[in-house]
Design brief:
By secondary structure, this protein is an alpha/beta fold. It is globular. The protein folds into two domains: about 20-55 and about 340-435, Aspartate Aminotransferase, domain 1 (Alpha-Beta Complex); about 65-335, Aspartate Aminotransferase, domain 2 (3-Layer(aba) Sandwich), CATH 3.40.640. It has 16 helices and 15 strands. It has helices at about 20-25, 50, 60-75, 85-95, 110-130, 150-155, 160, 180-185, 200-205, 235-245, 265-270, 295-300, 320-335, 340-355, 385-400, 420-435; strands at about 30, 35-40, 45, 100-110, 135-140, 170-175, 210-215, 245-250, 275-280, 290-295, 365-370, 375-380, 400, 405, 410. The strands form three sheets. A seven-stranded mixed β-sheet has the order 4-10-9-8-7-5-6, sandwiched between helices. The chain starts with 17 loop residues before the first helix and ends with a helix. It is about 35% helix and about 15% strand. The site of pyridoxal-5'-phosphate has 15 residues, from α5.
C-alpha cells in the first residue's frame, strides 16, 4: 500500500484537534493481532484495543471470514417487519451470555444509540404500565454515555455538554466516586465510598421517587478516566432503585464482553440491571453494532395490543444489519473458542502488578485498575489541562505503543490476545514516556 498521504482537508474528524492532526498526521493503514502499521510503515502496539473495542485483536481471520461471507450472501435486510437468520442467532447468543434475567436484545449501531434506546425503553415501559409520570432520569458526574442528546443529558462530562443547550429536561446527576484523598492508588475496587450511593435517596426525596424512571451508570466509568465503583456502591444503588420501582440501566459499552474478566461488569460486581447497554466488544470493533438487553418483564410489558401492531416505535435503518450480526456472532464464538475472557482474567494480575509500579514516577497522582483496564492520573500542567497527558500519548506513540488519554488521565485496555510481555511493554512504555516529558 502507498505511503503517500491523501488530501486531509475535507474530513472533519470527531473528538480531534483537527488543525493539529492535519499538521502532524498519525495514520494507520493496516492492523493485525496486537499491532497497527502506520502509513510510514512503523509498527504500533495497540494498548487500548482500538478504542476499548477490539477485544479479540485486529483482523481476526474467523471474524474477517464471517464478514466476507455475509457480504457475499445477504448484504442488507431491513429489520422493520422483516428478518434474517443471523441476527436471531446473535440475539440468542447474547442472551445466553448475559445475566439470566436479561432475556431480549434490541439492536442499534453504536453505544450512543444503545443509550438513547435504553432511555426511551425505560420511559415507554413506565408509561405502558400506567406510570407515565415517571419521566425523570438520573445519571452521574463523570459518566459517559455517548453523544446523542439522551446520552449527553445523563452523562457527566462537561466538555461534552456545555455547547449543546439545555438538553433533555428532568435529568439529575449523582456525584462521582473519585476521591484522591480517600481512594488514591487503590488496587482494584476502592474500599471507601459506598456511602456515596445514598445520595441517590436524597435526589429521590427532592423530586419524589414516583417521578423517576431510571438511573443510568457505567459499572466502571471508562471514558472519563477509569473510575471504579467502591466496594458495595453498585449493590446499594440497586437496592435503592428496587425500593422505589426505578429501573437500573447499566451502560456496559466498555465493561461488557470480558473487559473485567467476566462476561459483563454486572457479573464481576454481582449487580444485575433491568436494562443493559452494549456495543464495542460485541463485534470486537469490526462492524458498528450496539444493543440493549432487557429483562423479560420489560419486554412482556410492551407485548400487548393486537399482535400485528407495532409495539415500540423505535429502530434504525441499520438495526440488526447482516454484516454486524455476522461479525458479532463470529466474535462471540472466537471469545468462547479461544478462551479470551479467561486470558483477560489471567492477564489482569499482570496489569495490576505492573501498573502500580508506576507509583512514584513524576507527575503521577493516582493509579487505578480492574480486569484489563488501567489508568494513570497525572498532575495537570497549571493553566493547560490535558496537555501533559497528550505529551505522554505522543511520546508513547513515537515509542510504538498506542494508549488513550482523557483529561490528564492515561488509560490502557489491551486486547485479550495480549501476552504478559505485551502488557509489560505497554505499561513500561508509559513509564518511560512519563520520565521523558516535562
Ligand atoms: C459507557 C459508554 N457508553 C456509550 C458510549 C458511546 O458509544 P459509541 O461511541 O459507540 O456511540 C461509550 C463510548 O465510549 C461508552 O464508553
Amino acid at each position: 500500500m502507498s505511503n503517500a498521504l491523501p488530501n486531509l482537508e475535507h474530513y472533519w474528524m470527531p473528538f480531534t484537534g483537527n488543525r493539529y492532526f492535519k499538521k502532524n498526521p498519525r495514520m494507520f493503514k493496516e492492523a493485525s493481532g496486537m499491532h497497527y502499521t502506520t502509513y510510514d510503515d512503523k509498527t504500533v502496539m495497540d494498548g487500548v484495543s482500538g478504542l476499548w473495542c477490539c477485544n479479540a485483536g485486529h483482523c481476526h481471520p474467523k471474524i474477517v471470514e464471517a464478514i466476507q461471507k455475509q457480504a457475499e450472501t445477504l448484504d442488507y435486510a431491513t429489520a422493520f417487519q422483516l428478518g434474517h437468520p443471523t441476527i436471531f442467532a446473535m440475539a440468542e447468543k447474547l442472551v445466553d451470555m448475559a445475566p439470566k434475567e436479561l432475556t431480549h436484545a434490541f439492536f442499534t449501531n453504536s453505544g450512543s444509540e444503545a443509550v438513547d434506546t435504553a432511555l426511551k425503553i425505560a420511559l415507554a415501559y413506565h408509561r405502558a404500565r400506567g406510570e407515565g409520570h415517571r419521566t425523570r432520569l438520573i445519571g452521574r458526574e463523570k459518566g459517559y454515555h455517548g453523544v446523542g442528546f439522551g446520552g449527553i443529558s445523563v452523562g457527566g462530562m462537561s466538555p461534552n455538554r456545555k455547547m449543546f443547550g439545555a438538553m433533555l429536561p428532568g435529568v439529575d446527576h449523582l456525584k462521582h466516586t473519585h476521591n484522591l484523598e480517600h481512594n488514591a492508588y487503590s488496587v482494584g475496587q476502592p474500599k471507601w465510598g459506598d456511602h456515596l450511593a445514598d445520595q441517590l435517596t436524597e435526589i429521590l426525596m427532592l423530586h419524589d421517587p414516583s417521578t423517576v424512571a431510571a438511573v443510568i451508570m457505567e459499572p466502571i466509568a471508562g471514558s472519563a478516566g477509569v473510575y471504579l465503583p467502591p466496594v458495595g456502591y453498585l449493590n446499594r444503588i440497586r437496592e435503592i432503585c428496587d425500593e422505589h420501582g426505578i429501573l437500573l440501566i447499566l451502560d456496559e459499552v466498555i465493561t461488557g464482553f470480558g473487559r473485567t474478566g467476566s462476561n459483563f461488569g454486572s457479573d464481576a460486581f454481582g449487580v444485575t440491571p433491568d436494562i443493559m447497554t452494549i456495543a464495542k466488544g460485541m463485534t470486537s470493533g469490526t462492524v458498528p453494532m450496539g444493543g440493549v438487553l432487557v429483562k423479560e418483564e420489560i419486554y412482556d410489558t410492551f407485548m400487548t395490543g393486537p399482535e400485528d401492531a407495532i409495539e415500540f416505535f423505535h429502530g434504525y435503518t441499520y438495526s440488526g444489519h447482516p454484516l454486524a450480526a455476522a461479525a458479532g456472532l463470529a466474535t462471540l464464538k472466537v471469545y468462547e473458542e479461544e478462551g479470551l475472557f479467561e486470558n483477560a482474567r489471567k492477564l489482569a494480575p499482570v496489569l495490576e502488578e505492573e501498573i502500580h509500579q508506576i507509583k512514584g514516577t513524576k507527575h503521577v497522582i493516582d493509579i487505578r485498575n480492574f480486569g484489563l483496564l488501567g489508568a494513570v492520573e497525572l498532575n495537570p500542567i497549571e493553566g493547560k489541562p490535558t496537555a501533559r497527558a497528550l505529551s505522554v500519548f505522543r511520546e508513547c506513540y513515537d515509542r510504538g505503543v498506542l494508549i488513550r488519554t482523557t483529561g490528564d488521565t492515561i488509560a490502557m485496555c489491551p486486547p485479550f490476545i495480549a501476552t504478559a510481555d505485551d502488557i509489560r511493554k505497554v505499561v513500561h512504555t508509559v513509564k518511560e514516556s512519563l520520565e521523558a516529558i516535562e
